[in-house]
Write a structure and sequence with these properties.
The chain crosses the membrane at residues 31-55, 67-88, 109-136, 142-172, 179-200, 232-253. The protein is mainly alpha-helical and 264 residues long. It contains twelve helices and no strands.
Length: 264
C-alpha cells in the first residue's frame, strides 16, 4: 500500500497531466466544449421528468414538492453516471493502454488513478450545476450535503474495484467485457434510480438490499431529496464488497502482469 501511494505521489504530474489532456482532447473539436458534459445527462433527466414526474411524484414517501422527482432522478442519474464511467473505462483500461504498458516503465496504479480523476472532474462539473439549481429552486439541503462526500468515496472504491477486476479478466477473456456491457444496462434498471424501491412488491423490496449500488444511490437521494443524513448501514455492503474487489483486482494484476503484457 505504501509503495502504491508513493508511486502515485512521484508520478502526480503524469496523472494530472493525463487528466487535463483527456479533458482537452475530448472537447477539442467541439463548439460547445465541456457543455456537452452537462447536456447529455440533462437531456436524460428532462425526458424522464417529463414522462414520469406526475406519476412518480406520489410514489416518493414523505416528500411533496414541485421538484421532488426531478431532484430524486438527478441524484440517481448523477451517482450512476459516475459509477458507470469509472467501471466502463476500467474494464478496458489495460487493453486500451497496452502499448503504454509495454513501452513505458511507470507505476501501473497510475492508470486507474487517471480514470478516477477524469470521472470525478466530469462529475464535479455536473454537480456544481445541479447545486446551483438546488439553490435557485430553494431546495438546497444545507450542511447535510457534506455527507455526499463519503458516499461518493464508497462509490468510487466499489466502481474501481469492480472495474479493475473485470479489466484484468477482459485481457484474457474478451467475452467478459462484452457480457458486462450488457449486464450494466440491466443493472441500471435493477437499481432504484428512475423509480422508488417503495413501489415494488414487498417480496421484491428485499432483493434490492442485495444490490450494493442501491444503498449508495438511495443514500444520495435521501440527502438531496429529503435533506436528511443517509443510512450509513445501507452503504456498508458496497464498502465491504468494494474493498474486497480492490484487493482482488490488485492481486490479479500483480500475479498476471507479465502475462498481460504478452497477451496485449
Amino acid at each position: 500500500m505504501f509503495n502504491m501511494i508513493n508511486g502515485l505521489w512521484r508520478y502526480r504530474s503524469f496523472i494530472f497531466g493525463s487528466i487535463k489532456r483527456e479533458f482537452q482532447t475530448k472537447y477539442r473539436n467541439s463548439l460547445l466544449g465541456a457543455v456537452w458534459n452537462i447536456l447529455n445527462p440533462l437531456a436524460m433527466i428532462v425526458i424522464y421528468t417529463v414522462i414520469f414526474s406526475q406519476v412518480m411524484r406520489a410514489k416518493l414517501p414523505g416528500v411533496d414538492h414541485t421538484f421532488a422527482y426531478s431532484i430524486y432522478l438527478c441524484a440517481g442519474i448523477l451517482s450512476w453516471g459516475l459509477f458507470a464511467e469509472i467501471v466502463s473505462r476500467s474494464q478496458v483500461m489495460f487493453v486500451d493502454n497496452g502499448n503504454l504498458l509495454k513501452k513505458i516503465n511507470f507505476p501501473r496504479i497510475c492508470i486507474p488513478a487517471i480514470i478516477i480523476g477524469s470521472a470525478l472532474l466530469n462529475f464535479l462539473i455536473v454537480s456544481v450545476i445541479f447545486c446551483v439549481f438546488l439553490l435557485v429552486s430553494g431546495y438546497f439541503p444545507g450542511v447535510v450535503i457534506l455527507s455526499i462526500i463519503p458516499v461518493i468515496a464508497v462509490l468510487v472504491v466499489f466502481a474501481i474495484g469492480l472495474g479493475m477486476t473485470i479489466g484484468v479478466l477482459n485481457v484474457f477473456f474478451s467475452d467478459v467485457g462484452q457480457f458486462f456491457g450488457i449486464f450494466l444496462q440491466f443493472w441500471f434498471w435493477l437499481t432504484p434510480i428512475v423509480y422508488s424501491a417503495t413501489i415494488l412488491p414487498a417480496n421484491l423490496q428485499e432483493y434490492v438490499s442485495y444490490n450494493p449500488l442501491a444503498g449508495i444511490v438511495m443514500a444520495c437521494q435521501t440527502v438531496l431529496v429529503k435533506g436528511e443524513w443517509p443510512d450509513w448501514y445501507g452503504i456498508l455492503p458496497a464498502t465491504i464488497v468494494g474493498l474486497l474487489l480492490c484487493i482482488l483486482g490488485m492481486r490479479l494484476f500483480q500475479k498476471r502482469a507479465a502475462e498481460m503484457v504478452d497477451e496485449l
